[in-house]
Amino acid sequence: MDIHTLEGGCVMRNQLVQDAQQSLNNAFQAVSQLEGTPNEKQVMNSARNAMEHARRAIEQVRSHGEQQTVDEMERQIEQLQARFESAQDDSAKHIN
Fold first, then answer.
1. Which helix (H) or strand (E) holds 48?
2. Which of 21, 24, 58, 77 has the greatest count of CB atoms below 10 A from its CB?
3. Which residue, 15, 19, 39, 28, is CA-closest to 84?
4. Which residues are CB-contacts of 66 (< 8 A; sequence separation ≥ 6)?
5. Where on the tree of life does the source sit, at the highest rank (predicted)?
6. Which one, of 65, 59, 74, lies nearest residue 9 by Cα?
7. Are residues 50 and 60 in contact, defined by beta-carbon separation less than 8 angstroms?
């Protein structure tokens, strides 16, 4: 393996980490929007989709051996999941 291969692998891992972090940020924004607009099915679906996209991006990072980064991102997505579920419960209360 030459230095260019090593550099390419590092660049790819860095890009995957950046992509995963951006996906996670998008999911946080979507859930925050959901928290501010209960009873909006489209907003709820958008938040759910953003979280799923973030999970897939985190899995890509995991497959490239960035375990410490993955652990932190998984901690964040778990917190986000709890917020999503709370917002979802609040939305159900508005509907009933």
1. helix 41-62
2. 58
3. 28
4. 13, 16, 17
5. Bacteria
6. 65
7. no
Domain assignment of residue 11, yes or no: no
Q: Would you say residue 95 lies in a domain?
A: no
Residue 63 located in a structural domain:
yes
**54 is in which domain, residue-wise?**
16-89
Q: How many CA atoms lie within 13 A of 56 on its CB side?
A: 6
Look at residue 2 in the predicted model and tell me its pLDDT.
39
Residue type for 23, please?
S
- 77, two tokens: 């997505």
84 pLDDT more than 80: yes
66 has pLDDT over 80:
no
Task: Specify if 2 maps to a domain.
Answer: no
Decide: helix, strand or coil at residue 13.
Answer: helix
What does residue 65 show for φ and ψ, rounded to 5 degrees? 80, 25
Q: Number of structural domains, the chain?
A: 1
